[in-house]
């Protein structure tokens, strides 16, 4: 494991101890406070996993929290997000043992237990590579891949336990999956992603986007973001990135690390994008 310091803009290796998870791909991570939570993935034999681990950043210690029947079914290429204010970590969809999923699970950090939450039903097709974000006090499922690239948006109200399909307007992104997505205030910011899948599936590179958009979750309006900059300061088209919300020089934005290029090369660069977000009138 490595840590990137936003202030000094330097990488440093972490000396992890404890029950270190075995190697895997298609895994997701989310942080609450100083603890990082990691769920699922696919092992070297292409077996779907459902273990939940925690990593304490203050001590550098891994610990297993759940596995087996204690939580969500086995899956990879799912979506995961933390509601740091509420103290929950959410997992949605992904590729399960019997196909794609559209179920929603929540992990109560304080209680240390999983809870299966209401599923969205047939209106929200089972999918992998979806955007999952917390914005405006709600949980949002954005786009994804369900046999084809999707362009629908669904909202889960954590207070009422109700799902709703969201009709969006404005300058909408084209259908896509495996993009970066994070909630910033009442907006969901997305970047990149696969807009045309490869015939090789996870082994190949499809057509990737280099666009950035924001969804204002109040009026459900999309806006294409102006991220014009020189090529040396722009990540370019990519998908399958690691990403997170972050803050640099007092500005809240999107951190993008690595990913897959249109030439199927694995990338190792890191970028920070602080968009100008305006609420609709």
UniProtKB/TrEMBL annotation:
The lineage of its organism: Eukaryota, Viridiplantae, Streptophyta, Embryophyta, Tracheophyta. Pfam families: Kelch_KLHDC2_KLHL20_DRC7. This is Nitrile-specifier protein 5. GO terms for biological process: glucosinolate metabolic process; nitrile biosynthetic process. Gene3D superfamilies: Kelch-type beta propeller. GO terms for cellular component: cytosol; nucleus. InterPro entries: Kelch-typ_b-propeller. One of its GO terms (molecular function) is enzyme regulator activity. Keywords: Iron, Kelch repeat, Repeat. Its cofactor is Fe(2+).
